[in-house]
Amino acid sequence: MNRTKQHWSYLAGERGKNRVRALEAKGKLWIEWKDEEDRKRRVLLATADRGQAVTKAELAAKALLSRCEIRPQAFTLKRILDQYLAKRTPQKGGSKQGHDCRAAKLFCAFFGPERRPETLNRIDWDNFIDGRRHGGIPGYAPVGERQIAYDLKFMVAVLNWALGAGENGRAYLETNPWSAERRRALGLKMPKPVRKAQPAISAELHALLLQHSPDWRFRLAMILGRETISRNGSVRMLKWADIDFERRTIRWRGEYQKDTSGSRSEDRFTPFNPEAAHALREAEVQGIGEAWVFPSPGDATKPCSRFVMEEWFQAAKRRLLNSIGEPDQREAMRAALRGVGFHAQKRYAVRARREIPPKVLEALARTKYTTLVDVYDYVDVEEMRRYVERSGDQRTETAAQQG
Predict the structure, then answer these.
(1) By three-state DSSP, how is residue 269 classified?
(2) Contacts with 278 (C-beta within 8 Å, 6 or more apart), sequence order
(3) Where are the alpha helices (DSSP H) in 90-215?
(4) Cα separations (Å) of 40 from 54, 63, 136, 151, 326?
(5) Cα 79 to Cα 71, 110, 137, 280, distances in angstroms
(6) Domain containing 325 — which CATH number?
(7) Mind listing the pLDDT tens digit for each residue in 293-302?
(8) Is residue 290 in some structural domain?
(9) pLDDT in tens, 213-245
(10) Of 134, 156, 186, which closes a domain?
């Protein structure tokens, strides 16, 4: 049997710490070791004496050991996540705090709690997306693109925060492996869901739901959401001090807004039309100052919760369906109501105001225009058909006039 010729080598130091190897290769003596970035380094020795090579390896191992003792221990992924949850997460809202805690456990489960965050790379980015998408993370079911992007944005926020935060005058991170610049350079993109048609509440359906409203607060929220192009989450948090009937403006407090166009702490003012003014004046419960426009049914000192609003929306749907006696008409209405919620109000409001200049619409809705177009606006086949037929009729009329 032919055996591979063994070359002489000598190991000094501890593996994974200060290991240095003296070896003979191509008739020459070398020493090799791994640097701080775990890359192998090799240096040719100016001697042919193996004893001197052993001495140089021992000296190099001692030098590496002293450097390891001086160099502070790197912060682990779990350490940084724990500090973020303790110092930054409490400043967020309830739902965001819940997601932060869940996402922290998720990333520790996937990358391991002892992982050094600065070593995250493109492969880690792609592997996380793939594992989250197909349920490859033990204990976590497959999720859609939107949730994956939500999780990744949390980790990006943690890494950005870690650059400016730290302990004992030392930052948690010196470099951000997933910074915006690095993601652009490496082509790392957030997953995007396939755009689907989102329902909007037509004027007829809106009127029918108002007719079958189970509570005055639901009726008022529907009208304000539609007329002010606002989310139900923003409308619910209005106080009577925010309503200025003389100037006919509404103050949207930054602390309650999901504002993607500026600082969350900045208040915004928008005008409201006569329909909204009439609905506010007709509210069954009027208030002043810091009283809630939509007080909770059980405790007027608190705003009405989104869960109660959702229950009222479902109740209005049931009332509307029960009022229809013809089975076929009832099923057609059931199909029209499928997937319709408060967000459908804002979708309709955006689609009905396409003629408004983009910057004006952005200011009224307090949402970036790109978000309004990408999330709320949608053109279905029937709308395209109307424009195609209208264009065809205009060309026919023009040809007839020229002929």
Answers:
(1) strand
(2) none
(3) 94-111, 122-133, 145-164, 180-186, 203-211
(4) 19, 16, 33, 35, 79
(5) 18, 15, 21, 50
(6) 1.10.443.10
(7) 999 999 999 9
(8) yes
(9) 999 999 999 999 999 999 899 999 999 999 999
(10) 186
